[in-house]
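In the design runs reported in the main text, the only information available to the sequence generator was the tokenized backbone. The following block is the verbatim input for one such run; it is reproduced so that readers can re-run the procedure and compare outputs position by position.
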């Protein structure tokens, strides 16, 4: 390692918190004390990471408030320093961190709220895959056997999130910027939420039992026929035509394959 590389490695180690600022004293001209300067850079780095978490987890930050969220963010950043200079997408395991701290904060539903925030971010940041033209399915429908044998591929912008608490209504209100009742009670109960990026914005909705089985079956690579059967088993009144139409309108699918 060259002297310049060793110098930069030492600086980075201090900024990232791996070593204390005093380790840079030998690099300073005339023995100047690096401590205060290094702490300024490190504190700026930690602040930037905390601000990124606030931006990436907007609903979670809104319901927790600045003090509570700020303290949690600092604790997370202290344990999970950014591994990339870019803070885009930072905090992918924050929901697990929140869940692990349930004994301290006493809010078992908070991790689910953060999972929805992260899914929204992943949908927003996903690559722009080409969206399947609905006319392709319409043409295929002329031969029912071919249609049922088809496999529909999801885009990276599609996120299906399973929650153990009924947090979707609260999360949706927070994401829209609506006022929420501070006394609203969270109740346990499974909910599954679909989050995807539409033509111009991220859209989201809660899924019914039939939709859950239908869409998750497709996501696992099963044929359309198998997915329809799974949906009907979960909910005999499942409306496949309506669900498929909404899914196509929302741009969930990027390609179709496996026809006979």
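Verbatim output:
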């Amino acid at each position: 390692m060259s002297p310049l590389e060793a110098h930069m490695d030492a600086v980075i180690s201090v900024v990232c918190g791996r070593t204390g600022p005093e380790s840079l004293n030998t690099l300073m001209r005339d023995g100047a004390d690096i401590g205060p300067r290094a702490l300024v850079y490190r504190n700026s780095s930690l602040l930037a990471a905390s601000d990124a978490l606030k931006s990436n987890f907007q609903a979670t930050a809104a319901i927790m408030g600045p003090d509570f969220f700020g303290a949690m963010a600092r604790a997370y950043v202290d344990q999970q320093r950014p591994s990339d200079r870019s803070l885009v997408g930072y905090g992918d395991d924050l929901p697990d961190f929140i869940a692990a701290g349930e004994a301290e904060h006493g809010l078992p539903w908070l991790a689910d709220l953060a999972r929805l925030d992260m899914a929204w971010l992943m949908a927003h940041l996903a690559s722009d895959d080409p969206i399947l033209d609905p006319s392709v399915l319409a043409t295929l429908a002329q031969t029912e056997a071919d249609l049922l044998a088809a496999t529909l591929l999801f885009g990276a912008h599609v996120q299906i999130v399973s929650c153990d608490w009924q947090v979707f209504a609260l999360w949706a209100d927070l994401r829209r910027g609506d006022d929420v009742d501070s006394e609203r009670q969270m109740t346990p109960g499974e909910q599954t939420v679909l989050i995807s990026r539409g033509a111009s914005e991220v859209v989201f909705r809660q899924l019914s039992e039939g939709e859950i089985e239908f869409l998750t079956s497709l996501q696992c690579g099963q044929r359309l026929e198998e997915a329809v059967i799974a949906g009907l088993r979960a909910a005999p009144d499942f409306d496949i035509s309506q669900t498929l139409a909404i899914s196509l309108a929302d741009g969930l699918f990027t390609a179709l394959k496996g026809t006979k």
